[in-house]
């Protein structure tokens, strides 16, 4: 993790603080723009709070996804050490991205609450559970994408497109309750939607009608992580160190 920080941010300027600074620029920028161009409330809920509770988890997932692409190629030299495995490389990157995004989200939320754009969370338990499931989903995504991009150049080049096309299915800017009932099951198949609905249930309490399934979130993330670990542990033979 320390090596990853050094190679990515260096020791000059803000240095390690950019691990939080980058997500802050994304999250705060989107929150400010949406709050400026949209009505103050959307479906009876504060627009700023909707954006922050949706875009911060989305940023976590997208950053973990982006940092997993060809991750082994960039850090392949580390695999000369027997103690280092491909799993270590992915875990280091994912942990740093999650730490940075959580820190950025916390700071942006504190400022928004202090300025009166959103209220403090109503139920911290379900909010933290939603964040935990989003962290697990981000880890699962990285564990699956990293070995697949190492094996397939087509998949590697498609990640950027897949990332953008996934935004409508992430639940970042809408709630399941806002769409027609017969289409809701499509959104609820997404682990990200379940996580964000939990986060919003914790943030808004009884003001919002959140839809989520804790049991589904638990087993789908378990299956995805198990699949990702299996792929990652078998990827070493596809890594070409120059």
In short:
The chain is built from ten helices and two strands; from the N terminus they run ααββαααααααα.
What does this protein look like?
By secondary structure, the protein is an all-alpha fold. The protein has helices spanning 2-9, 18-37, 47-68, 71-74, 86-114, 124-151, 153-165, 184-188, 191-204, 214-233; strands at residues 41-42, 45-46. Strands 1-2 form a two-stranded antiparallel sheet. Strand 1 (41-42) and strand 2 (45-46) form a beta hairpin. Helix 2 (18-37) crosses helix 5. The longest helix is centred in the middle third of the chain and has 29 residues, at 86-114. The protein is globular. The chain starts with a helix and ends in a 9-residue tail after the last helix. The model has no long low-confidence stretch (mean pLDDT 85).
Question: What topology emerges from the helices and strands here?
Answer:
Elements: H1 2-9, H2 18-37, E1 41-42, E2 45-46, H3 47-68, H4 71-74, H5 86-114, H6 124-151, H7 153-165, H8 184-188, H9 191-204, H10 214-233
Helix pairs in contact: 2-3, 2-5, 3-5, 3-6, 3-9, 5-6, 6-7, 6-9, 6-10
